[in-house]
Amino acid sequence: MTAKKSKKGPTKGSGGKGRRSLEGKSGTLPASERHWYDGKQRQRAAKRGPGGGGGNQDGARSERRSESSDLLVGRNPVVEALRAGMPATRLFLANSLDPDDRVNEAAKMAGARGIDVVEVTKTELDRRCESNGQPGAVHQGLVLQVRPYQYWAPEGLLDAAKDSDTPPLIVALDGVTDPHNLGAIARSAAAFGAHGLVIPERRSAGVNMTAWKTSAGTLARLPVAQATNLTRALEGFKKAGLFVVGLDAGGDAQIPELELATGPLVIVVGSEGKGLSRLVREACDVVASIPIGNAESLNASVAAGVSLYAVSRRRAEAV
């Protein structure tokens, strides 16, 4: 005889669990504080145009662009980037954030600049960081999607330097592959009056999120040119009347005593391990060294900072 099967009844306590799931997370900002939504519907309608919908094809293209963009994560870096005017397309906020002055400031600045502000789950932020090559990133619920960096042409940088009120001063990086060094050199270049950086297209660090963070926002204002052939770019600078000075421990002159410092100048910083390459060294008018004590050598970014300070000091004395 087969026993009669009874239907399984409701799980005890399921009603309370269901109610809790509908209450939402306590950290969600109230609608009155979501000031970045002001006019958002009007912005979306303007983007769609008179026809109404944007269409799947445009949306797919937009999504591909966003996936190829860089992501800046963390509350302080995001706020600093927005303050510096870094080009951005979207600001992602976790929808369970506790009130925070930095979050509010980031949202206000993004809204004022017309940057889309999107609320997503923390899981979605984790997924985006992982797909962007930043697994386990401490985003603190705040992620800024930025446009790929737009490099200058060396000729454009030269023209801008010549049009300025001071003698041209350009810093060229010969095979510097550490983005931390790129960011630190950018900070020194801006601090001591350089007009921009030139980097090779290959075998060199580019302007990425690591360089951006290290530069503390300087890369939003300091032009960076990318040269297909650095030696050829240096020759072009020389034809335009600039002197090219390479940095090397075995240089023939010393930076603090460099008489060329008061004129139009290109300072070339070599790679972290090998220094100046042969062709770049041959393109230099002068190879100069930094007088140091017992240290065997200086880090690329430190050497650039010391040299730029020495040049700015010579220029100030000459005025």
Question: What does this protein structure show overall?
Answer:
The chain is 39% helix and 17% strand. It is of the alpha/beta class. The chain is elongated, with a radius of gyration of 27 Å. The protein has a 7-stranded parallel beta sheet, sandwiched between helices. The N and C termini lie far apart (110 Å).
In short:
By secondary structure, the chain is of the alpha/beta class. It is built from 12 helices and 11 strands. The longest helix has 19 residues, at 300-318.
Give the SSE string. HHHEHEHEHEHEHEHEHEEEHEH
Strand coverage percent:
15-25%
Total strand segments: 11
What is the terminal separation in angstroms? 110 Å
Total helical elements: 12
Strand order of the largest sheet: 7-6-5-10-8-11-9
What is the C-alpha radius of gyration, as a whole number of Å? 27 Å
**Net shape:** elongated
Helical fraction equals: 25-40%
Low-confidence stretches: 13-28, 35-68
Mean pLDDT rating? 80
SSE-based structural type: alpha/beta
Give the biggest sheet: 7 strands, parallel
How do the strands and helices of this protein lay out in sequence?
Blueprint: H1 14-22, H2 40-48, H3 56-67, E1 70-73, H4 75-83, E2 88-94, H5 101-112, E3 116-120, H6 122-131, E4 142-146, H7 154-162, E5 169-174, H8 179-191, E6 196-200, H9 209-215, E7 224-227, H10 230-239, E8 243-247, E9 253-254, E10 265-270, H11 278-283, E11 286-289, H12 300-318
Parallel strand pairs: 2-3, 5-6, 5-10, 6-7, 8-10, 8-11, 9-11
Antiparallel strand pairs: 1-4, 2-4
Helix pairs in contact: 4-5, 8-9, 8-12
